[in-house]
Amino acid sequence: MNEARLVSVSKRMSRHLRHAPEEIGITLDAAGWVAVADLIAALRITRAELETVVAGNDKRRFAFDETGELIRASQGHSVAVDLGLEAAVPPATLYHGTVERFLPAILSEGLRPMKRHAVHLSADVETAHRVGSRRGSATILVIDAAAMSADGHTFHRSANGVWLTSTVPPRYLTRR
Ligand code: HQG
Questions:
Q1: Class of the CATH-defined domain 93-175
Q2: In Å, how far from its chain's centre is CA 73?
Q3: Which of 120, 90, 106, 123 is nearest to 170 (CA)?
Q4: DSSP classification of residue 89
Q5: Residue span of the signal peptide, if any (predicted)?
Q6: Residue 56 has what pLDDT?
Q7: Can you tell me the distance from the alpha carbon of 164 to that of 94, in angstroms, rounded to the nearest whole number?
Q8: Is the dihedral of CA 19, 89, 139, 58 positive or negative?
Q9: Confidence (pLDDT) at 154
Q10: Count helices and strands in the chain by DSSP H and E runs
Q11: Splitting the chain (176 residues) into consecutive groups of 10 residues, what average pLDDT does each group show?
Q12: 44 conformational bin, left if phi > 0, alpha if psi -120 to 50, beta if neither
């Protein structure tokens, strides 16, 4: 499987496992899982190709359940799913990569989940930089996660290491 096909299958999987399962006639369960057999039939790929995409994915975006018969996206959904993640204590500082043009809104109303279920935060600057760079020249925001925790905000860590929280009020944000 060449790199271009790997990326193209991965993008289709992200789209249908996070946002639009109905477009290919699959249904996610309440926790976001779908049968591997249904997914490979719907995407017209082989099980071996699916396994290559899951294993080779740069961000480990997809995960099998313990039986290997179900698969889901580890984060990033816009459709209603409950990933069943345990609340976790975040590192004292987290980062969010965005772009300059969003700053006035973000600094006045805080970080909001927008189309997703949660605000996505990174444990390291490099990752935040990569996330922000998807939209242009990245600007990094530093989040005082220790203060948020102390004030009762809850955090979850996805299977692929993304920190999730429902909102980040502006008082916890500073520009790096
Ligand atoms: C911005 C990718 C205005 C926010 C990445 C971001 C990540 C606001 C955009 C994952 C705002 C939402 C998530 C406010 C937030 N006013 N703009 N109040 N609050 N924003 O894509 O964090 O490749 O939903 O700064 O790597 O960019 O898909 O979130 O720019 O992990 O696996 O609104 O998506 O992962 O954009 O990215 P997104 P994100 P995947």
A1: alpha beta
A2: 8
A3: 106
A4: P
A5: none
A6: 87
A7: 10
A8: negative
A9: 97
A10: 6, 9
A11: 91 97 98 98 96 91 96 96 94 98 98 96 97 98 98 96 97 97
A12: left
Q: Where are the domains of the chain?
A: 3-73, 93-175
pTM: 0.90
Give the burial class of 166: count Cβ atoms within 10 A of its Cβ; 0-12 exposed, 13-18 middle, 19 or more buried: middle
- In terms of C-beta density within 10 A (0-12 exposed, 13-18 middle, 19 or more buried), how is residue 17 classed? buried
Query: Could you report the predicted ipTM of this complex, rounded to two decimals?
Result: 0.96
Measured from CB, residues less than 6 Å from any atom of ligand 1 are: 14, 59, 61, 76, 98, 102, 105-106, 109, 111-112, 114-116, 120, 131, 135, 162
CATH architecture of 3-73: Orthogonal Bundle (1.10)
pLDDT on residue 59: 87
95 CB neighbour count, 10 Å cutoff = 23
From 16, 102, 115, give the residue whose CB has the most ligand 1 atoms within 8 Å, as the site to mutate: 102
Which stretches of the chain are DSSP H helices? 3-14, 36-43, 47-56, 103-109, 125-133, 145-150
